[in-house]
Give the backbone structure.
Amino acid sequence: MTTYTPKERLYRVLRGMEVDRMPAVCFTQTATVEQMEAVKIFWPEAHEDPEMLAKLAEAAHTVVGFEAVRVPFDITAEAEFFGCKLKAGTREQQPSVVGHSVKTPEDVDKWKNFKFGGNARVDRIIKSVKILADKYGKELPIIGSMIGPFSLAQHLNGDNWFMGIMMDDPVVQPLLDMSTDFCIKYATEMVKAGADTIVIIDPTASYELLGDQFYDKFAVPYHKKIADAMRALNVSTILHICGDTTKGIVLMDKAGVDGISVDQKVNIKAAAAASKQAKIVGNLDPVQLLWKGTPADVTARCKEAFAEGATIVTVGCGIVTATPTENLKALVEYTKTAKYK
């Protein structure tokens, strides 16, 4: 059988094509304190500088062995771009949104004419994609990640968001439209910079929180717009939503993404059976297994997840910064032995 480059391997797996083995990739947050110490680049400074961001992202490959590089490490740069106030992160914790910028349709109008190319953090993230693509783009997948439109809208609108979608608040539709437009344009800028895979992290667009009717109305069509735009560019898309999405996989699959990333609460066998198009990727527990377990525990769970139907066995959510490198290396080494029938 032909041996593929990591870039070719991921592309082919997500499209159901023959490959030599499983890709060794992580679609969620990759940085750990041990990686930071190895390359002498640390949070929170690394969130802000394109060179530092790229160098720390590179550590997932050079220190751990993942056969891909991915930026950024958090999902707050998009809200910051639209005027939200952030609580600064630490070496161990990501930044978080603590102040919101949109209450009315008129507030949405103020932000509609957004542009890239300045010095906002999203622009610096785009620059980090280019740095990584220039160095690794011929060989490794270059993964650009962003918050999804539902969660971005919630960041902008704050605690009113969920009540708003239930009560037909007039801000909901224009805000969701603008958030989706932003996501498509942001993803496109990352692709122009060299990204070949886009991850949509939409944690609050949860089937557990929304139920089938609201999820189908307020999440699926907007995820589909992003997936369609990326498919037109021949770019793969992965959708990650936290929580037990087992019962929502059928709806998530309607979005037309190439992969659905699931966390440790999801029944892999049921998810794989429910998804007719997207590949199921996941679902190693980032806390109890990867942080607190042993390499032997990781290898054993990898085998189980593959047997249950995960197309790519990988982390089920963002990697905890305290995670030992040896546990992540156990995941990488497993993937190099996993072959598809």
